[in-house]
Amino acid sequence: MQHTHMLKRFYKALFFTTRFYLAAGVIVLLFVLAFFVPPLLAVAEFCTLALTLLVITDLLLLFAIKAPVTALRKMSARFSNGDDNSVMLTVSNPLRYPLWISVLEELPFQFQRRDFVMTARLPPQQSHIFSYTLRPVERGEYRFGNSNLLVTTFFGLVQRLFAGKTEQPVKVYPSYLQLRQYELMAFQNKMQDLGVHRRRMIGHSMEFDHIKEYTQGDDVRTLNWKATARRGVLMVNNYVEEKSQQVICVIDKSRNMKMPFDGMTLLDYAVNATLVFSNVALQKGDKTGLVTFVEQHIEFLPPANKKIQLNKILEMLYAQETQWQESDFERLSVHLRTSLSQRSLLVLFTNFESLSSMQRQLPYLRKLAKYHLVMVIFFENTGLRALTTGSAVTTEDIYIQTIAQKFIDEKRLIAKELLRYGIVSVLSTPEQLTIDVVNKYLELKASMQL
């Protein structure tokens, strides 16, 4: 039984290369020609013997050692959704002669790639690092399979399949790489490059408290010249630190958010923007929370400004998926009204494709706007915009462009209709979503609307 098992393993690991089949084909051709030219028979027999000896030597070089190569995959324990994540595979050759290797990586099925092959030459007793990047477009748990190594020697007649045991799970989280990028740019004062600008405010980022007489050490920039003229002595404005505000991101998970863009759904873009936006709000001293809703199901994370809040938001965003049902804005309105006692900024990520669809939800948005500052984020259809920029040649082209322009204009009408009832709106493309949301938030903070 043991010998049978060893033979099966040997048979499964043995592969003949293209070079072997070419050499065998030439030998067969020589035997055929020897039927007409007898002297070629000796040449054919010599070539057969030489090929046999080379194959045996090749087999001994590859199969005499239990594990001729070793493989080790290194990557992060979690991937960032929508970003390029680096993976490194180190393959080592412990032998005293060089090897040629082809690596067939068993990538997670979510990438739908079955032909991912990398090749390299391994010098004697040295290692080679294969590096590549992967861009996931779905959140969830991924699983890498084995690294299948096809090893050949300098003869190149036989290949040995060695399955490197590199099975490894990895979780794909919302775009935390984008989060780090924003933090680094803020540190280097390069947010302007992405459209995030500082807005100048008159005064201080503090709330006015009272006027008092100037004492040594007070900031001369806070002098109140009108009060000084009335009293005849120097008077200064006294401020208190700005109070922490509540900022709640509300994500719609209905079928409207399942629309794809560049391989990712609108929900994924909303999730990535929520993570970055929540981090910015926390750095501004605000309390951040999260609400996701679809049909009658609502998940609520109370607002807080503790250090662990961002991790709680990240874990909650990780498991969110779009549904095919409609969202119940009425239930959302009631839930937020009862859960939030303090006036808050509600950042609602949704998608209205038509004016009528927005008007169905408008009464509930207006009800929320009575008690909170509501900012509605919805998406511009970039596919329609591309249709309007092309040249119209036929009547059908004109008809298509007219309809596309109608839908684009309707999106702008939605924004105006929301503004009419005191609801802040942001119409953004998916790739600019994070920048637009952060800019609008900073604008609201600067204008004291929040």
UniProtKB/TrEMBL annotation:
It comes from the Bacteria. This is Uncharacterized conserved protein, DUF58 family, contains vWF domain. The keyword rRNA-binding does not apply. The chain crosses the membrane at residues 20-37, 43-65. Pfam families: DUF58. Residues 212-375 form the DUF58 domain. Keywords: Membrane, Transmembrane, Transmembrane helix. The keyword S-adenosyl-L-methionine does not apply. SUPFAM superfamilies: vWA-like. The lineage of its organism: Bacteria, Pseudomonadati, Bacteroidota, Chitinophagia, Chitinophagales.
